[in-house]
Amino acid sequence: MSEPKAPTPAPGDTYKGWLFKWTNYIKGYQRRWFVLSNGLLSYYRTQAEMGHTCRGTINLATANIAVEDSCNFVISNGGTQTYHLKASSEVERQRWITALELAKAKAFRMQAESDDSGDDSTSPGGGQGSGSRNSEVQSTLRTLGSKVEDLSTCNDLIAKHGSALQRSLSELEGVRLGGETSEKIRQVTERATLFRITSNAMINACRDFLALAQAHSKRWQKALQAEREQRVRLEETLEQLAKQHNHLERAFRGATVLPSSKSNPAIDSKGPVPVKGDVSDEDEENEFFDACEDVQEFITVPADPKYHRSGSNVSGISSELGMDDGTTSLDEQSLGSNPESPQSREVVPVRKRRSRIPDKPNYSLNLWSIMKNCIGKELSKIPMPVNFNEPLSMLQRLSEDLEYYELLDRGAKCQSSLEQMCYVAAFTVSSYSTTVHRTGKPFNPLLGETFELDRGQESGYRSLCEQVSHHPPAAAHHAISERGWTLRQEIALASKFRGKYLSIMPLGSIHCIFEKSNNHYTWKKVTTTVHNIIVGKLWIDQSGEIDVVNHRTGDRCHLKFAPYSYFSRDVARKVTGVVTDKDGKAHYVLSGTWDEKMECSRVMQSSRGGENGTDGRQKTVYQTLKAKELWRKTPLPEGAENMYYFSTLALTLNEPEEGVAPTDSRRRPDQRLMEQGRWEEANAEKQRLEEKQRTVRREREREANHNGSPAEEVKEPADKAEEVEIASEPSETTYKTETLHGSHPPAYSSGHQDNYKPMWFERQVDPMTGEPTHIYRGGYWEAKEQGNWDSCPDIF
C-alpha cells in the first residue's frame, strides 16, 4: 500500500531540516541537521556547522531508500554508508521520502546525460541562427503551455468524476439486494468508464508533455553550456587585457622618468591590477564577521548611515576605509611606481621558476621497524628517517614568511601609521597560511647552513637565513626590500609532546622597519599544535595571541587566534583583532581566518554595553563600516596534494641556482635525494652528515679546551635537534621532541655552547626589545657578486 504523499519541494530546490540519526547503542538516535542539495544528502551537528564541518555525505544517484515504519527510513549506497533516520512525524517522513526520491531521480538522470556524449548537437550560428532559435523557443513554450492547460483540464475532470464515483460506491454499499441493484451497478459502471477515459486522456497528455520536454532539454542544456563557456572565455580575455594594460602603464611610467610629484594623478590613482593582499572590490557587500562570544571580547555592528554620506563631518573619508586625519584610504592606494625605488630601469626578462617537483613516493612507514633496531642504544642516538620530513629545510620554511610580501610593499606606501598597522597585522597572519596542510617536518639545518632568496627582479627583495647556533638551536633571518622595508628575526622553537599532540612554541621577536616613516614594529609568533601524533590523521592548528607594537608611535594591534573546538559554533581557524592608538582608542577591527583571508573594518564609534563575556565584563560594541579585504590566500597549485602541499613559492625554494654559497640549503645532498624520491639514499646521506657534524663539533670543543675556554659538554642528538628524554621518576615519563630548536632555552637567554661564530650575522643587544639577538652584518651579497666563497665552511 502506498502512503499518502505530503506537499513536496520542487526537484531543483534545496531541502533542509532536522532528522534523528542512529549513532550507536549507547547514544541511540541523535538530532542532526540534514541538507539535500544537488543529489547529495549531507548532515551536520548544528546549522552553524554548514560553513565548515560536514559530518557525512551520501550520493543519492546510487543510493537505496527504504521505509521501515511510520517514522523511520534507511538510506544506503550499498557500501559502507548507511543512514538509519527517524522523522518527527509520519507526514515529515513522507516529505523527506518524496524529496529524496525526486533528488535521486534527478541525480540519476543528470549522471546518465553526462555520460551520453554521442547525442547530436547544433552549433550556434550567426544572427539569423540566433533569431531562428528564439522563434523555436517561443513556439516550444507555446506548445508546452497548451499541454499544461490540457493537464489542468484533465485534472479537473478526474477530480469531478472521481467524486461521483466515490458517491456511487458509497450508495452501492447501502443498497439491499433487490430490484434497485442492477440499476445502481449500471450507474457505477458508467461512471467508472468515464473516469477511466479521463484518466487515459490525462496519461496521454502527460506522456506527450514528457516526450516534448525530453526532446528539447538536452539541446537547451548544451546551448546553455556553450553560453557559459563563452562567458568564461570573455572574462579571461578581459582579465588578460587589463593586466597587459596595467603592465604597459607601469612600463610607460618607468620610461618617462617623471618625478612622482608630477606624475599623472589619474594614472596613479588606478594602479596595477590588484594582486595577493589587495583590497578587493568584490567584497563591497560583505558584512563584518559577528563576534564569537567564547573568544572575542567585542561585538561589531554596522555604523550609522550618516558616516557613509559624502557630507560627513569626518574629514578625509573618501571611501569606507578613509582615514580621519585626511590621509589616503586603504582602497585608494596606488600600487604603481614606488617613489623610493628607481624610476628608470631596463626591462630585464624575469626568470621562469619551476612549478612542479617529483611526486611524493607512497612509502609505508612502520614505526616498529625503526624502534626495533634501536633496542639497547642510547635514546639520543636514535636516527629519524626522512619519511617524516618534507624536502625543505627550516631555513627555507622561515623564508616562506615572505610569501605575501606585497602586504609590506603596500604598508610602505601608507601615510598613516594606523593604516600601516593593518597591513603589518595581515602580514603576520598570512605567514601561517602555508601550514594548514603541511604536516611534514622540515630538515633541521646544519650549523653554518644558509639559504638565500633573491627575488630582486621579480619582487624587489632579498632574503638571507643562517643557522647561527646549534646548542641551543637558532636561526637568524634578514630580508630587505628596495620598496622601503626591512624584516629581521631570530627564531628558536620550544616544543612539548603531550601524547596526543605536539605543541611548538616559537621564541624570539620579529622586527619590521619602514624606512620612510621610521616605524619599527615587533611581534612574536603564536603556538602551533600538531594533533593525532600517535593515532589518526595529522592536522595542524594555530592558537594564542599576538601583540604587534609600533615602537615609534605606540600604536598596537592585538590579534587572537582562536583554537579549534569541536563544539564551537564559530568558523574554524578564526582570527580577530583591534588596532588601537597609544591612548587605547580603537580605529580598525580585523577579522578573518589564518588559512584564507583577512579583512578590516573602520571603527566609527565604540561603546560599552554588549552582552557579557565569559569573565562577566561587558563587551565593547564597535560600530564599523563594511569590511574591506586586506589579504586572501593564493590557491595551491594543481596536484599540490602529491607535492607535500607546497605553495607556488615553496615549489621554487629548493630549485637549483648558480652562484649561491656552498653552504646553501639547495646544495644539501640528503634533502636533494629526498626531493628526487630516493629516500633510502637520502637516509644514508643524512646519517653521514650527522656524523660529520658530530666530528666537527668534537674538534671544536677540543680546540676550545686547548685554548683555555672549555665548552660545556652537551650530548649530540642523532638528527641534530630530535631527541627523546625519559624522566628519572618511574611514575612520570616526559617526552621532549625538538623539531628545530627543541626545548632548550632560546639563543638570547643563555650563553652559546657551540663556540661558533656565524659567517654573516653577529650577536648584539637589540635596542628596541633589549634581547640579545643576531643581526645581519653584511658582506653576503658582495661575496656573491665577486664569486668569492673561500671563507665558507665545508658542511656538506
CATH architecture of the domain at 379-667: Beta Barrel
Largest sheet: spatial strand order: 4-3-2-1-7-6-5
Helical fraction equals 25-40%
Query: What's the end-to-end separation, in Å?
Result: 80 Å
- Please outline the major beta sheet: 7 strands, antiparallel
| Rg result | 35 Å
Low-confidence stretches: 1-12, 117-130, 257-295, 308-328, 331-346, 710-752
The computed structural class is: alpha+beta
Reported by name, the CATH topology of the domain at 379-667 is: Porin
The total strand number stands at 27
What oligomeric assembly is this protein in?
single chain
Number of helices: 12
Mean pLDDT: 76
Shape: elongated
Strand content: 15-25%
CATH class of the domain at 379-667: Mainly Beta
What does this 3D model show about the protein?
There is one protein chain. The chain is α+β, with helices and mostly antiparallel strands and 796 residues long. Among the domains are: 14-111, Pleckstrin-homology domain (PH domain)/Phosphotyrosine-binding domain (PTB) (PH-domain like); 144-249, Up-down Bundle (Four Helix Bundle (Hemerythrin (Met), subunit A)); 379-667, Porin (Beta Barrel), CATH 2.40.160. 30% of the residues lie in helices and 23% in strands. It contains twelve helices and 27 strands. The strands form four sheets. It has a seven-stranded antiparallel beta sheet, with helices on one face. A six-stranded antiparallel β-barrel has the order 14-15-18-19-17-16.
